[in-house]
Amino acid sequence: MTTTSAALNSNEPQRVVAPLEIMDSQEEEEKELLCKETSDDDDDDEYDSDYDDDEDSSSGSWKDLIVWSEWRQHGVAILVAILATILATVWQHYAQQQEHDYHLFESSSSSSASSNAYASTFRHEHLDGYQRTANISFCPSTLKSKVEQHLELFDFHVPLESVDAVQLHYVADAMEDDDYSTVLAKRVPSKLTIHDPEYHCLRQRVVQANENKKSYVTGTTYFYQPPSFLDMYPHLKDILPEQQQQQPTKSITGLTDKNKKKRQPKPASLSFTGFAAKFINLSPHPILLHWDGKGGHANSQRLVGEIAPFDSLGTATTPGQSFFVSPVYDSSHALDRWVVTADDSVMVHEDSTKNHHKWTPADWQLYHMQMANLEFAQHYLIASHRTWLAHFPRPFPVHPMIAATHVGQQHSVKLEDRTLPLEVVSVTPRVLAMDDFLTHDECQALMSLAAAQGLQGSTLYAGGMAQQQRDLSTRSSTNAWLSRETSQLTDRIYRRAAQLLQMKESLLQQPAFYHHDEDDEEAPDYTQHSIAESLQVVRYQPGEEYTAHHDFVYPSARHRYQPTRYATLLLYLNDDFTGGQTNFPRAVNPSKHDGITITPKAGKAVLFYNMLPDGNVDDLSQHQSLPVENGEKWLANLWVWDPVIN
To answer: How high is the pLDDT of residue 399?
Structure first.
């Protein structure tokens, strides 16, 4: 893994001022506030002058009232005065609380209403109580040793200089600051109380680390440990020779009888060597990521995409491929260049301008979020022997994952008025298949709907996101996008997909309360959207294919939900063609060097997961559609996100 040099820290401020610094004196401030509330109002000098003027005006009116000569109005006047005094006192107390609660750091003005005013209202119920920091712990013995069969505990480190950035994740959770706009702008309420004990344990660990002169604090979380190879393929145990299950015997000479000692079954060696490569931009400037291409010359170069400041981007690749990054204004100028390998697949671009003194506090916080992520990735690699491709912290998937402990495992799934078997065809990656998900008539109708809408060159996304460079060498099909509202058939497919995925059907549709107003800056945004994309119907003609790729995406570091495609549902619409199989070239199996291959069958559904149970994305979920030899292949696929769609 390529890491950034320590020299970068030399120009950093001694300590980035974090919104959490005010929490050290929280108890003292609360005591002071309590004393102020019980003291005389005129002793409080923290009110705005407007509120003081209001109080003076009320007091003056009271004095005028008590000198009135009309005694028959005297009683009424007293009641009016008492009411006015109560209202003034309540208003003053409210103003005082507002000033305390919305004091801006580095400013004496009061904050406006939260930019996330809709955060806890316009949202799917499955997001209630969501915490990005849910599965990491800094408290001793807090996490259970087993939360499910294949999740194991391991320790990780957070460098002290990155602790403030990690604490921001807890603040964002407490405020439901989904895009970190508030915490990075230091608009955190000064009296914000964080009830999560893990946050306070983290702060205590910092104190202990300083006392013990350590440069890091230790946390605990989980990694996914897949079943052993023999557990994935239990039938192999039945065909093992008897002597393999016993201790080796010795011959007359006293030497081990090597003829009776058989080798333990091992997975087949895979011919495919691809993997996911991730590129991190550790600068405050956007950059462009380029692939040098197969030809090795300027005309073979391909633009992969733009990487935002302190964010990342990834792509599927193979060993020995070269990439470079450039400024957005000059694609010919390479700022950094790498040749990637499976053992060194995470590349880091540092700020080459050396103008670190111009970085804002928010820049430093985002920088340290990435540094904490890189440190975590090293410990995750040691524990799991897998590359960490997600962004720390990332909780477990919110949505369920159907168990896949061994190949051939059977599940029964109720779909509307029928129950169908669902079979595990691969454990790593997690792939399951179901026949007759669609009827023959439904397959024909879906192809007709797509043809009527019009097929265009295949893209990775619907709508505006489709406007990207299209590489015909990797994907040469045509497609159409059908929303759930297109017809009764598409609505039925979404409902059936939810049943297969074991989630509420309402998650795959626009909520009834959704209303998008482009003129309202505070209108609800992505949290009201269906977690499923439009249904993509794809047609492959002879010779067309989709080379090995991943479906997951790399969310922004400052996105609290860390959304990505967690499940892919493939629906085969016909089978009157040759070729066009779906191949998982990195699937662990006992005999096939090309992984696991699924032959299309009309009406068949294939479900696979792009995430692991520990929150990381699954590099082994790489898959491809092999070239069609004769005829036309029709396929529909549905991408479902966790926990929300981006």
So the answer is: 96
- The whole-angstrom separation of Cα 387 and Cα 342 is 9
Q: Give the pLDDT score at 552.
A: 98
Is 39 part of a structural domain of the chain?
yes
Helix, strand or coil, per DSSP, at residue 114: coil
Is there a domain that residue 518 lies in? yes
Contact 574, 633 (CB under 8 A): yes
Spatial separation of the C-alpha atoms in residues 372 and 216, rounded to whole Å = 10
How many CA atoms within 13 Å lie on the side-chain side of 29?
A: 12
- Assess contact for 110 and 102: CB atoms under 8 A: yes
Enclosing domain of residue 75: 20-101
Q: What pTM was estimated for this model as a whole?
A: 0.79
Q: Are strands 596-598 and 628-630 parallel, antiparallel or unpaired?
A: unpaired
pLDDT of residue 74: 54
* pLDDT tens-place string over residues 560-600: 999 999 999 999 999 999 999 999 999 999 999 999 999 99
Q: List, in sequence order, every residue forming a beta bridge with 159; answer none if it has no partner.
A: 216
Q: Left (φ > 0), alpha (ψ -120 to 50) or beta: where does 229 sit? A: alpha
Q: Cα dist. 11→274, 339, 375, 552 in Å?
A: 39, 29, 20, 36
Place of tokens 């794809």: 538
Quick one: which H or E segment has residue 154?
strand 151-159
Which residue ranges of the chain lie beneath pLDDT 70? Answer: 1-123, 145-147, 240-262, 296, 458-476, 511-528
Residue 152 covered by a domain: no
Would you say 404 and 588 are in contact if contact means Cβ atoms under 8 Å apart?
Answer: no
Sequence-distant (6+) residues with CB within 8 A of 621 are 429, 550, 551, 552, 584, 608, 609, 610
CA–CA dist 585, 626 (Å, integer): 11
| Helix 488-501 vs helix 440-453: crossing angle, to nearest 10 | 120
The answer to whether 566 and 609 are in contact (CB under 8 A) is yes
Please report which helix (H) or strand (E) contains residue 350, including its range: strand 346-350
Last residue of a domain, one of 101, 131, 160: 101
Contact 307, 325 (CB under 8 A): yes
Q: What is the pLDDT of residue 192?
A: 87
Residue 299: its pLDDT value, please? 83
Kindly state the helix (H) or strand (E) to which residue 636 belongs, with its residue range: strand 633-642
Amino acid in the structure at residue 163? V
Amino acid at position 582, single letter:
T
For residue 19, cis peptide bond before it (omega within 30 degrees of 0) = no
- Counting the structural domains of the chain, the total is 2
Contacts for 123 with CB less than 8 Å, ≥ 6 apart? 527, 528
Q: Given CA atoms 519, 520, 524, 525 in this order, what sign does their dihedral have?
A: positive
Residue at which a domain ends, from 78, 101, 124: 101
Please indicate, yes or no, if residue 191 is contained in any of the structural domains: no
